[in-house]
Design brief:
The chain has 418 residues and is α+β, with helices and mostly antiparallel strands. It is 32% helix and 22% strand. The chain is globular and about 85 Å long. The chain starts with a helix and ends with a helix.
Amino acid sequence: MAQHARAKYVLRLSAALAALVLLFGAAADLAAAESPGNGSASISAAPSVSARSAVIIDATTGALLYAKNPDLVLPPASLTKIITLHIAYEEIAAGRLSPDELVEIDKNDCSPVIPYGSSLMYLHPKMKVSVRDLMLGAAVVSGNDAAYSIARRISGSNEAFAERMTKEVRDLGFDKMTFVEPSGLSEFNLVTARQYALFCRKYLELHPQALTELHSVKSIEFPRAEHAAPGFVPDGTIIQYNRNPLIFSYDGADGLKTGYIIEVGFNMAATAKRGGTRFIVVTLGGTGGGSQRTKDTTRLLDWGFKNFQTASIDPGALPAPRAWFGAQRAVSLATASPNAVTLPQGKVSGLSQRVVAPAYVDAPIKKGQKIGQIIYSVGGADLKPIDLVAAADVPRGNFFRRIWDGILKFFTVGFRKK
């Protein structure tokens, strides 16, 4: 009887999932979908995974499509390095760091201070290595020494850098992510699969070049002749290959990172794009070795591409409502989030869109202030709207502008109401 009841539950849950994705698009939070079931005509049964925690999200809309224990707090292992790389990119964007800058390697950022059996790009004390090479070392071969060297260059120490890591992710809204060092060696770095996947989405939004510059690079050659240092002369070049097997074999895969730590097991964050659809998968606490981790991630990506797609309609020129009493006559609008929705496969042909915005709005208007919406519909059912917001501040105009607009508004709006 218990098995029969569970089967009925799975069928009901599966049908509910299809409806939620269809009706709520990017807002559909399917955290209850530990196993999305097998009773829906639109969405096939999700695969089982060995990982203790797993999610798949639409990278464009943020829609959560599958979740297994998504809020379980676990050590990310080397997935930590994505936050380290995010901060490096932020420093480069701010002009405080250059990819070509040479960093002198500190002895405390090399083996044996860093365990030799851990992932290394094989830095040596007094080497001078470019920031670009260090970022590649952290991203491609998961070099703990590379992560330490980046952290020391930016913040002076691992401890100070870890404080910044935690602050950065908290400022982005990820309150369950905490870091104590930049490489992932510590089990006291903590994330959840849900928040880490959403962080990866933000990372790709902020640094889209990271996929081609770092995460899809298949190998690095290091050390090279220019990396000679006192007491060390490179004896040939070592070719090290990317630790992410999907970029070699999975259609559309171009990042992000693998990790392992004995306290939790095998972790992975992966992304792949086909056509206009990109998914992000995060698995934490996998068992069965690296091959099982790859199978789990591949199955989730396969399931995502089989069942869902990202869709968008170009709304054309957005309306520019009249700004009464403003220093400018009109307010330009922009989307607050990507103009896209996540749909089950096969539903795109029935997708329609309408733009709703007022003809008039009163100044002052703040940048980011919600003014209108883009509303997608399928089969007469509205999906979650995409907010239209002010693209820039519109301050109040001078005294004469306000008086004149008051008169115009009275005759324009007042008489219309009558």
